[in-house]
């Protein structure tokens, strides 16, 4: 019998019409969903027209989400959104409008537009998030996306797979974010360059869907091509009422070939903090300096889920955002926003003195809705803390989970939830 | 902007000055998010690498080379970051390694990239380089040291030779159309 395959290899083989593939092989894979957003839609459309083709390969398998500079923050953005609406009307494709969805990586799973076993390409680097559903999901560039919209296929090199086998229960205040930051601190921002990251083990099996999304979201922040968590009962539960077509649960073979297997016991892992100016500059919250902050941001594709809103609300409830701090909370999607409202989380945020906004990617990449000034410190639940990421090139960003962010907003300096709740 | 011709009509050998950068130069530093709405190549080029060196875009000359450490272009998938380097007229980027999406974008838009493990350590700012984009050989004319970059797999070399993914996509669509015509009714 031939060598077994990893789940990533199986999905790539199946979508390329091959019985097996091996790392390093180039394949032309059929795409189940192609995802783009307003940040680069204008450029994708221009490149698509250069291919001299009228219609996208399959309007049902193309989705444009207006999420980056929306609701439009200037005329340039408004023009791109207008052009995107026209394009989906004439060339085809689904459009997720302002007020109807939210951040692309939150909305696609909610709508059942990406399912276990699927192959998804997206123009946004955090497209790897969808691997949390047991799908193959990776990011491609603008010109690549234009070609994919025309062809319905994408060229890919089959990556080697790194396996992360995690056991143990993390600290009560730690979440998927802390697993992600811990892993990046161990392997570095290029530790998974070009590779697939497969997460498994008891810790992952016990991780709720939102935590899985967060973990897979940041795979690209250690260089990975894709992330993968095998679909299981947690996935099935999540898909109830969402999946509108049958899906395939793909598992790695027991004799699959991994480039490397990391085995870690994360029992009692404390909340992690990525200090400026690189996501791998990580310490535990207990070792982090109590640095005074100007802005706290809670949201983004990384931490815009309902569990994230809940964690923040539990800390904010009955407390006040510190006088020297502005706190901004942005649910990842309309669904999360509405449910947060019903659960009373939004009330907790507003009563605490936090600004709450309609879903947008804005603050995370320094686009709008929370840009930071020279010399300011921002504690954020987002994914990158490179210089200038959220505004001025001389600002500083600390990446944390939502509970730590909320605690910091209340204290006025970087701190742990226990310290605020005590 | 006038671009220097290759040193001989037949070859892909180019000379230019080296601009040296560290490891992990991310796309937020290559082109900050605030400039993603720009559409004019000259405007995009004017912000190239401003997060790493605010004077770079003003000082670099068309035909110069970027020589960087590992994981060049990490972070966001923003193709305008890759494009800003091309629009500035940089002849090629040489690095110990590239982030995946940056490398892919460079190939699809036709910005030459060379993966070379030894150049960054040896080359200094302002060194005169002679680079053969055909063979991947990098000669540091200032120091006399020669470096060899990795060869890309055949699939990528053919896409680069075809002119990137736009001509590739046009050809694939034409092939499909002719297959369709050949099908019996």
- The CATH topology of the largest domain in chain A comes to Aconitase, domain 3
In DSSP terms (H or I, runs of 4 or more residues), the helix count of chain B works out at: 8
Helix content of chain A: 25-40%
Strand arrangement across the biggest beta sheet of chain A:
4-3-2-5-6
Low-confidence stretches of chain B: none
Please name the CATH architecture of the largest domain in chain B. Alpha-Beta Barrel
Tell me how many strands of chain B there are: 7
Written as H for each helix and E for each strand, in order along the chain, the element string of chain B is EHHHEHEHEHEEEHH
Number of domains of chain A: 2
Detailed description of the structure:
The complex is a heterodimer of chains A (422) and B (185). Chain A is an alpha/beta fold and 422 residues long. Chain A has 2 domains: 244 residues, 2-Layer Sandwich (Aconitase, domain 3); 149 residues, Aconitase, domain 3 (2-Layer Sandwich). Chain A is built from 14 helices and 18 strands. In chain A, the strands form 5 sheets. A 5-stranded parallel β-sheet of chain A has the order 4-3-2-5-6, with helices on one face. In chain A, a hairpin with a 7-residue loop joins β12 and β13. Chain A starts with 6 loop residues before the first helix and ends with a helix. Chain B is α/β, with parallel strands linked by helices. Chain B folds into 2 domains: 139 residues, Aconitase, domain 4; 34 residues. A 7-stranded mixed β-sheet of chain B has the order 4-3-2-1-5-6-7, covered by helices on one side. The longest helix of chain B is centred in the C-terminal third of the chain and has 18 residues. Chain B is globular. The relative contact order of chain B is 0.15. The mean pLDDT of chain B is 90. At the A-B interface, α2, α3 and α5 of A face α4, α5 and α8 of B.
């Amino acid at each position: 019998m031939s060598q077994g395959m990893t789940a990533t290899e199986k999905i790539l083989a199946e979508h390329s019409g091959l019985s097996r593939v091996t790392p390093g092989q180039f394949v032309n894979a059929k795409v189940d969903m192609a995802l783009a957003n307003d940040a680069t839609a204008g450029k994708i459309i221009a490149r698509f027209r250069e291919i001299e083709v009228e219609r996208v390969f399959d309007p049902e398998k193309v989705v444009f989400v207006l999420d980056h500079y929306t609701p439009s923050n200037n005329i340039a953005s408004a023009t791109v959104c207008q052009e995107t609406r026209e394009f989906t009307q004439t060339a085809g494709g689904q459009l997720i409008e302002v007020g109807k969805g939210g951040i692309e990586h939150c909305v696609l799973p909610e709508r059942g537009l990406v399912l276990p076993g699927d192959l998804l390409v997206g123009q946004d680097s955090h497209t790897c998030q969808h691997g949390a559903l047991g799908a193959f999901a990776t990011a491609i560039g603008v010109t690549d996306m234009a070609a994919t919209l025309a062809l319905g296929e994408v060229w890919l090199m089959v990556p080697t797979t790194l396996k992360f086998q995690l056991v143990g229960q993390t600290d009560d205040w730690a979440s998927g974010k802390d697993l992600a930051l811990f892993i990046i601190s161990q392997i570095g921002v290029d530790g998974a360059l070009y590779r697939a990251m497969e997460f498994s083990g008891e810790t992952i099996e016990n991780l709720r869907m939102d935590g899985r999304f967060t973990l897979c979201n940041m795979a690209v922040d250690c260089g990975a091509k894709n992330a993968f968590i095998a679909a299981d009962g947690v996935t099935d539960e999540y898909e109830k009422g969402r999946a509108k077509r049958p899906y395939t649960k793909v598992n790695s073979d027991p004799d699959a070939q991994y480039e490397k297997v990391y085995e870690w016991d994360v029992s009692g892992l404390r909340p992690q903090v990525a200090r400026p100016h690189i996501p791998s500059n990580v310490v535990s919250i207990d070792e982090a300096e109590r640095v005074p902050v100007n802005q706290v941001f809670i949201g983004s594709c990384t931490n815009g889920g309902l569990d994230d809103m809940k964690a923040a609300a539990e800390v904010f409830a009955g407390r006040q955002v510190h006088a020297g701090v502005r706190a901004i909370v942005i649910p990842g999607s309309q669904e999360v926003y509405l449910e947060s409202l019903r659960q009373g989380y939004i009330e907790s945020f507003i009563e605490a003195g936090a600004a709450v906004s309609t879903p947008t990617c804005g603050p995370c990449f320094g686009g709008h809705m929370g840009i930071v000034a020279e010399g300011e410190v921002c504690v954020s639940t987002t994914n990158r803390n490179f210089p200038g990421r959220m505004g001025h090139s001389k600002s500083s960003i600390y990446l944390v989970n939502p509970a730590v962010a909320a605690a910091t907003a209340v204290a006025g300096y970087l701190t742990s939830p226990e310290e605020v709740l005590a | 902007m006038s671009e220097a011709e290759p040193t001989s009509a037949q070859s892909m050998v180019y000379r230019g000055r080296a601009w040296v950068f560290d490891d992990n130069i991310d796309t937020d530093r290559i082109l900050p998010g605030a400039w993603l709405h720009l559409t004019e190549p000259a405007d995009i080029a004017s912000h190239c690498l401003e997060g790493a060196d605010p004077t770079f875009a003003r000082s670099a000359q068309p035909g110069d080379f970027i020589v960087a450490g590992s994981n060049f272009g990490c972070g966001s998938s923003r193709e305008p970051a890759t494009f800003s380097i091309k629009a500035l007229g940089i002849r090629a980027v040489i690095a110990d390694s590239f982030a995946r999406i940056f490398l892919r974008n460079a190939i699809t838009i036709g910005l030459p990239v060379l993966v070379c493990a030894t150049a960054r350590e040896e080359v200094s700012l302002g060194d005169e380089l002679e680079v053969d984009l055909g063979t991947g050989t990098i000669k540091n004319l200032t120091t006399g040291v020669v470096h060899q970059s990795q060869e890309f797999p055949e699939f990528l070399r053919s896409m680069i030779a075809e002119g990137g993914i736009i001509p590739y996509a046009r050809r694939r669509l034409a092939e499909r159309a002719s297959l369709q015509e050949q099908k019996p009714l």
